[in-house]
Amino acid sequence: MTGLGLASAALGGIAAPGTAGAADTPIGEKWWPSRWGPDDQAGASNHMTPEKTLAAVQQIRTGKVHSLGRVYERDMPLFGERVFALRTPGMPTGGTFGDNKIIWNDEFLATEIGQVGTQFDGLGHIGVEAGAPGEQTRRRLYNGVTMAEAASPYGLKKLGVENVKPFFTPGLLVDVMGLKGGMLEAGTEVTLADLLAALERQGLSAEAIAPGDVVMVRTGWGLLWKEDNARYNNGAPGIGMEAARYLAERQVSLVGADTWGVEVVPNPDSNQVFPVHQELLVRHGIYLQENLDFESLAADGTWQFAYVFAPLPIKGATGSPGNPLAVT
Amino acid sequence: MTGLGLASAALGGIAAPGTAGAADTPIGEKWWPSRWGPDDQAGASNHMTPEKTLAAVQQIRTGKVHSLGRVYERDMPLFGERVFALRTPGMPTGGTFGDNKIIWNDEFLATEIGQVGTQFDGLGHIGVEAGAPGEQTRRRLYNGVTMAEAASPYGLKKLGVENVKPFFTPGLLVDVMGLKGGMLEAGTEVTLADLLAALERQGLSAEAIAPGDVVMVRTGWGLLWKEDNARYNNGAPGIGMEAARYLAERQVSLVGADTWGVEVVPNPDSNQVFPVHQELLVRHGIYLQENLDFESLAADGTWQFAYVFAPLPIKGATGSPGNPLAVT
Amino acid sequence: MTGLGLASAALGGIAAPGTAGAADTPIGEKWWPSRWGPDDQAGASNHMTPEKTLAAVQQIRTGKVHSLGRVYERDMPLFGERVFALRTPGMPTGGTFGDNKIIWNDEFLATEIGQVGTQFDGLGHIGVEAGAPGEQTRRRLYNGVTMAEAASPYGLKKLGVENVKPFFTPGLLVDVMGLKGGMLEAGTEVTLADLLAALERQGLSAEAIAPGDVVMVRTGWGLLWKEDNARYNNGAPGIGMEAARYLAERQVSLVGADTWGVEVVPNPDSNQVFPVHQELLVRHGIYLQENLDFESLAADGTWQFAYVFAPLPIKGATGSPGNPLAVT
Amino acid sequence: MTGLGLASAALGGIAAPGTAGAADTPIGEKWWPSRWGPDDQAGASNHMTPEKTLAAVQQIRTGKVHSLGRVYERDMPLFGERVFALRTPGMPTGGTFGDNKIIWNDEFLATEIGQVGTQFDGLGHIGVEAGAPGEQTRRRLYNGVTMAEAASPYGLKKLGVENVKPFFTPGLLVDVMGLKGGMLEAGTEVTLADLLAALERQGLSAEAIAPGDVVMVRTGWGLLWKEDNARYNNGAPGIGMEAARYLAERQVSLVGADTWGVEVVPNPDSNQVFPVHQELLVRHGIYLQENLDFESLAADGTWQFAYVFAPLPIKGATGSPGNPLAVT
């Protein structure tokens, strides 16, 4: 796997698991304190600066706004035991009041709000058990925060999604589906070579990826959304550790995909479960965004855009729903 | 009230309630079909075009991104019987799995999702009972849609917030607090004269408001947020019908405020309950956004900005939470 | 169908739908005021008196307590769009506190609490639209209560389940499955003749059914519970209008079954949807209990018992979950 | 505190915390395996036998049924961060269908279902941290079950309330309020001497308490329910460790009270937080029932009754709501 060598080289001092002497956690060397300091809770959203905004604005040429988010509804694919239950009380909920005879309606929603539909994975979402089973003091998240510090029944005490800075930054869509000539299959790893080849095919270069940029990976898997939910949830194509390490090296702020997990599932190494989530979120503070819809953007053949997304600042939440925009 | 005369003049053909022969609903003349046709469900978000995006981009000079949204948390002010209950299952929710010993966390949220905290009122939120009490066929919303057509226990069948087009448009902050020299009191109406005077004081003119623009009104009431929730909820300063009609005449797409209802509460006409909601949402399809935080923006003294907001496309919801951005 | 004649005769003055001059609602003659007066909200639970308790006690011979209720869990059959989502926050939810190092756990449940699993249908659950579509003032429930009077977004204002008196009364299990030699099929109506024959086979007589008694109908359908949820929900055997009218004539307080609807689904008259619900709940204030488990009781061959059930007094709820007991 | 000596004597072999050599947990000697074996999950509900049922039946003389449960509603006192949010979708939720024009209503409830209002504390509710902070493998519940074994985000895997056997057993109301001549104050401990004196005053003896019986303690605190919720929640009178140990010695199956915690809060030993919960639930598998209403029973002056209560068998829940009955 030359790609792995490439990525390893790129990672410089960061040892791969198993490297003699270095590894002290199940995912290799300790990853804290973060590059933004030991108290940082914003991760790669720290890249968001006025300069990034202005760089993103340079990508806006026609003024067209593409929604990358999907509609939240009860018949969308849901991971595991999660539910999405919306109820509209009363119909109307309020009224009739006044000579103007006003009525109003509300809705009541019960759901895993940050982990259903189009979702943004925050830094409190993923961790590593670095000690004995069940030891909250050695279950660690981004920046080495322990579950003992973060966990709470009413919302995380640390690394909640309210700490994330809004994104207004250049974005890039890597059309791997276009490269491969069709939807990738579940379990198909998008390699670094695939990413580079797709970019080349699109007339772009990995050199165009600057720190803080957003990279989106189109696999075609999203075509199954609401068409075949069972298949959609049963594995997915996506990037593996090689591409993840490369993107981390490029210091992107977020990686998104038209799949439920961004990364390849099952992982080619059958002993690894969602390792890319750990590599990006835990080790590097790089965010993931899932269940995106790139079809409008791809139809335009526009691969660069201003990516705009403000996570819902729900105190102590592990993630956020939302409709990220690609402005071209 | 000279302002009312002014506004009435401005409204031209739109009859006030009670005008002989014209009124056939509790809020005056019928308001449908909408200017965007009898089937429209997007209201004033129809103003969102590439041209508006490009106009908004012209407002981006420094690249600074201001969050206008507030953090969602259990001790924020809540209207009426609404609740906000976030729970984090398991801690962790998933894991430990794999040699990489991954764990993950979710959160479960039960709330009036579109009507708590910083909120965007959609077109299904407000209506008028235009017939006998309880007649769903004559309870009407935007574009004349009846509750009989829209109501459903599992989300609105029409006018759900998923129909709204994302906002990327010029925005204007009207600093009425600055004009008045401090926080306005509950029940204080922001008149058209106030708006015009505030704009003049800011070196701006109402002429600067183009169709599709967003207008934000700073009253200072937001200073009470989480400082005195009981007082915050007990009435509010805000625009009245006069200013609302003027803004509708200017064809704005959205009016926001640092209060829970945008409009003055209680209304100076004690027989009217939230009439501005009806005027803007029902009659004109103009959106409201509430519980905003303008303090960062005001501190900069920057009154014009690109307003960027993508409502959560929850199928059949009456509104949306979110963190609208003011980019300067 | 001699049974129908019998039942019709028994019903005396109560006209069948279509009877000249009498019918003024879609289900025939008006059914209010109730036999317990125009303000009654307790329906057939008014039969619960100390005398009934003492009569029930007479059925207790061995002291054996049978649970008729099923476990509430996420993989039980659910009707329509209902959900059952239980989450355990924090693990633990509270603690650690004190030298005694206490911790505690809670659970958070979001569900249609009165209408999932083993369920007791209250008087606010079922109604009849007796006017034009959508007229809340002519949608009527038990005792003629209108939806305009009862409906509210935060719980019914009338006929909430908190008005029901706890049941401690003689109960009777009618073993129609035993009579037929196996599980009845979906759409199979349990006729009055079936009920009478089953009772005879069990050495009992319909004469044994006194006002306020509870009658349970075993169809065998419950054997599909969690074995084949799709089939379980797709129709059911059960009593039809004939048996319902007979049981109403006997003035039972509650009818239960090992199905999700007590009554035969689909109804043999394809123009009728759940008419037994209306006959019993709306017209007579007789309660229904669904998704029961009679297998323990049937295995003992004990057909008479003290039925004990106290609905959860949730203010304004349409029904109640619970574990009814059959004490023998 | 002579009472403590009395209770310690009564406890026989069970060492108090600090006893040399014996204590290996923060609450003293290890308490597992339980008297019902190492796999037991039913605790003191194992006392429920046909014989207990028949003994309870002996208490039924008049047939009067008293509800000891309170109505569940949004303005009841709630502990800590718990919520109670009921919504009625659609109004109606279903219909109109069929020539019979049926409609139906549901309700959607989001709440800490087993830990709000009148509540039954199950064996998964309370535990002890017996190891280092956050070690799930050494947080122990009844019968020594660890949090590592029981905890799960979707309901407890062990000790869920579905394992509890329904109660039909003799009950006894101890009228401490009557003894003291009025409502006890928050922080007032009901001592063993108080219990014995109250029983004597009622013409009863502690000798009357047999294994499996239920003991209810009336403090009068329930008079504050919905009258002064803030005061109601701010501490409570109740039994202390002395009385708890005595009741455990008597092998009762459940202890209930007209307070939110059964036990005295704050505990006279300010280093102890809810120690009675641990003594009864964790050490002995004896259930607690809280927020009961004894006023109807006390008004009758009837102190002995058949106690009937079937917990809602919610899989993996820590407790249960419900309306326990006292039949006299």
List strands and helices in order, with pairings.
4 copies of one chain form a homotetramer.
Chain A: H1 2-11, H2 50-57, E1 65-67, E2 84-87, E3 94-97, E4 102-104, E5 108-111, E6 119-121, E7 126-129, E8 139-140, H3 147-150, E9 167-175, H4 176-180, E10 189-190, H5 192-201, E11 214-218, H6 229-233, E12 238-239, H7 241-249, E13 254-257, H8 275-284, E14 287-290, H9 295-300, E15 304-309, E16 319-321, E17 325-327
Parallel strand pairs in A: 9-11, 10-12, 11-13, 13-14
Antiparallel strand pairs in A: 1-17, 2-5, 3-4, 6-14, 6-16, 7-8, 9-15, 15-17
Main sheet characteristics of chain A: 9 strands, mixed
Derived structural class of chain A: alpha/beta
Q: What Rg of chain A, in angstroms, do the CA atoms define?
A: 20 Å
Identify the strand order in the major beta sheet of chain A: 1-17-15-9-11-13-14-6-16
Q: What is the beta-strand fraction of chain A?
A: 15-25%
Oligomer: homotetramer
Low-confidence stretches of chain A: 1-22
What is the N-to-C order of secondary-structure elements of chain A (H for helix, E for strand)? HHEEEEEEEEHEHEHEHEHEHEHEEE
Number of helices of chain A: 9
Major protein interface? A-B, 96 and 96 residues
Terminal CA distance of chain A? 36 Å
What is the helical fraction of chain A, as a range of percent? 10-25%
- DSSP strand count of chain A: 17
Q: Tell me the overall shape of chain A.
A: globular
